[in-house]
Amino acid sequence: MENPHSNYVTVEIYDQTYHLFGHDAEHIRALAAEVDAKMRAVAAQGRTVDSLRVAVLAALNLADELSLTQKSTDGAKLGHVRAAALRGLLDEVLVEEQIPAERKTGS
């Protein structure tokens, strides 16, 4: 029988220990390290020492990064869709130009 505690991961974020549950311990550790780094970067700017405020500012920074990444990804997807549509239109034009040329040459 599998140990029910085997999916718990202990991480430290901003000098606090957290016991988190998840199936991918390395991923959880990487996320915790990212949050810790972001909180330390916010605290290093010296605007506040209150850990709750540091956490909120770090969360806002991470949310902003996520938003920019999603916009970039959405823009890339839109660009691919637009390129595919333009390729389709170009193919139609090329086919239409070939038909009259074939009729003229008797092919």
Structure overview:
It contains 2 helices and 2 strands. With 107 residues, it is mostly helical. Helices cover 70% and strands 11% of the residues. The protein is elongated. The chain starts with 7 loop residues before the first strand and ends with a helix. Strands 1-2 form a two-stranded antiparallel ribbon.
- Our Rg estimate from Cα atoms comes to 27 Å
Tell me the overall shape: elongated
> What is the number of beta strands?
2
Secondary-structure element series: EEHH
Output the number of helix runs: 2
Distance between the termini: 75 Å
Biggest sheet strand line-up:
1-2
How helical, in percent, are the residues?
A: over 70%
* pLDDT averaged residue by residue: 81
What's a quick, concise take on this entry?
The chain contains 2 helices and 2 strands. It has about 110 residues and is mainly α.
Strand-helix topology:
Layout: E1 8-13, E2 16-21, H1 25-44, H2 51-105
Task: Looking at this protein, list some descriptive labels.
107 residues, mainly alpha, 2 strands, 70% helix
